Amino acid sequence: MEREMSVEAPAARALLLGIGNVLLSDDGIGVHVIRALDELERAGRLGASIALRDGGTLGLELMTELEECAALIVIDAMELGSAPGTIRAFEGADMDAQLGGKHRTAHEVALADLIMAAKLTGCAPHRRALVAIQPGSTGWGLQPTEPVRGAIPDACKAVLSLLEEWGHGTRAH
Predict the structure, then answer these.
(1) Class of domain 14-165
(2) Residues facing residue 87 across a β-bridge
(3) Is 81 left (phi over 0), alpha (psi -120 to 50) or beta?
(4) What's the CA gap between 111 and 62, in Å, rounded?
(5) Largest alpha-carbon pair distance within the chain?
(6) Which of 6, 44, 101, 128 lies at a 20 to 30 A Cα distance from 81?
(7) Which of 10, 124, 16, 13 is nearest to 76 (CA)?
(8) Are the CB atoms for 34 and 75 separated by under 8 Å?
(9) How far apart are CA 85 and CA 135, in angstroms?
């Protein structure tokens, strides 16, 4: 006797990826934002379909993670030509264009390569965004400069806003 079994598809996962070198002051801001978002996750404020990843300075090594997600938000330091701590969000094609511009750090090149490889293999998340934060200093230092450290709460808000807009809800407390 055959039975038809219904299997529910797992919820589409949103990956929040912090990029940067925490030994180079503001360059590590993406990782610092992921750490702040991790505190929200531990407090139960992020949905179950949201995954956090400290990507450090990894590049193509993150490819398998992209294959497993439906949405991607990358947080990274990036030259925006603005005051330190300025935050800008770039979605979809705007993100791709931003990554195609001038690269100031090796991990910006690695991120551009990662997204390009994901597109070529057909596993680039349809929903993707870059939350970029203007660094002030990328010299040696374990903490971001004051203006960039002060941008962490607003960067978290930008990430949460994108998640809400995309239907990957958060839990208000």
Answers:
(1) alpha beta
(2) 133
(3) left
(4) 9
(5) 69
(6) 128
(7) 16
(8) yes
(9) 6
Tell whether the model's pLDDT for residue 103 goes beyond 80.
Answer: no
Apex 21 CA angle, 15 and 139, nearest 5:
145
Structure tokens at 82: 């603005």
For 153-163, write each residue's pLDDT tens digit: 999 999 999 99
Integer Cα distance of 70 and 76 in angstroms: 20
171 or 128, which is more confident = 128
Q: Length of the chain in residues, anyone?
A: 173
Domain ranges of the chain: 14-165
The residue written with tokens 């940067």 in the block is 20
Distance CA 93, CA 105 (A): 21
Q: Find all residues with CB under 8 Å of 55, minimum gap 6, and list them.
A: 17, 18, 19, 30, 31, 62, 74
Hey, is 148 helix, strand or coil? helix
- The CA R_g of the chain, rounded to the nearest whole Å, is 17
